[in-house]
Amino acid sequence: MSETPFHTFIELIKVDQAIVDFGHAIEKINQEIVELKSQEDTLSGVILKAKAEVHDAQKAVDRHELELKSLDQQEKQKKERLENLTDYKQYQSIKSEIDTLKSRQHEYEEILMTAWNKLEAMQKEYDKVQSEYPTKVDDIKAVIKQKETDIAALQAKLDEQKSQRGGKEKLVPAEWLEKYAVMRARVPDPVVPVAQGSCSACFYKITEQDLMMVRRRKLLQCKSCYRLLYSSELEKEIASE
């Protein structure tokens, strides 16, 4: 059976809707890929942060060890001076300084121990995230690859629909195409079926006379929302042809 202009117009609408749907699906997957790559960057950031924390913790340990070493050296020097002193006041003064150094040494030993514990914890965390990183990145890359495959399949379907569009458009009356183009620029559903005697988009009641014209494969505009109207019964007939 040869296609009528009405039949072709309905098919053109379906092609355009498919083009929109495939385009949205591709856009959605592309956004998902962007988010996955962002997750990959975040993982890299976690590694760098953990590495920096280990570096800072090691610097703190080195600094405290130098400070403790300096205190030890000061104590040694003062003890050597103490051995050669005969003056009681100087002896007591140096001994007091040594006691103060011992107190500070004790404090720095505790500080150093805390710094070592922090370094060990930071190193453990760094080793953990570093060991987990390859697997997590591989998982993300695998998902991205699958999504890129999905995009390729959708793009092929999109290209197929676009290739069909030109031929169908040539068989549709120019007046219909013009009205269709105007409404298509305003709303996502420029052509809708009549449902229960009303426009299925805005529910405006269609007159009996207009309903008869729609059933005769005439294309009418809704007097309320100006969408193009067609008979849903005819759509079923076209699908069965």
Detailed description of the structure:
79% of the residues lie in helices and 5% in strands. The protein has a 4-stranded mixed β-sheet with strand order 2-1-4-3. The protein is rod-shaped. It has 5 helices and 4 strands. Helix 1 (5-83) runs antiparallel to helix 2 (88-170). It starts with a helix and ends with a helix. The model has no long low-confidence stretch (mean pLDDT 90). The protein has helices spanning 5-83, 88-170, 174-184, 208-215, 232-240; strands at 191-195, 198-199, 220-221, 228-231. It has 241 residues and is mostly helical. It folds into 2 domains: 15-164, Helix Hairpins, CATH 1.10.287; 174-240, no CATH class.
Please describe the topology of this protein.
Blueprint: H1 5-83, H2 88-170, H3 174-184, E1 191-195, E2 198-199, H4 208-215, E3 220-221, E4 228-231, H5 232-240
Parallel strand pairs: 1-4
Antiparallel strand pairs: 1-2, 3-4
Helix pairs in contact: 1-2
CATH class bucket of the largest domain: Mainly Alpha
Query: What is the makeup of the main sheet?
Result: 4 strands, mixed
Q: Indicate the mean pLDDT.
A: 90
Task: Assign an overall shape.
Answer: rod-shaped
Rounded to an integer in angstroms, the radius of gyration calculated over CA atoms is 40 Å
Query: Strand content of the residues, in percent?
Result: 5-15%
Question: How many E-type strands?
Answer: 4
CATH topology of the largest domain: Helix Hairpins
**Low-pLDDT runs:** none
Briefly note the structural class of the backbone: mainly alpha
Count helical runs: 5
Spatial order of strands in the largest sheet: 2-1-4-3
| Gross CATH architecture of the largest domain | Orthogonal Bundle
Spatial gap, N to C terminus: 8 Å
Order of helical and strand elements: HHHEEHEEH
Amount of helix: over 70%
Number of domains as seen in the coordinates: 2
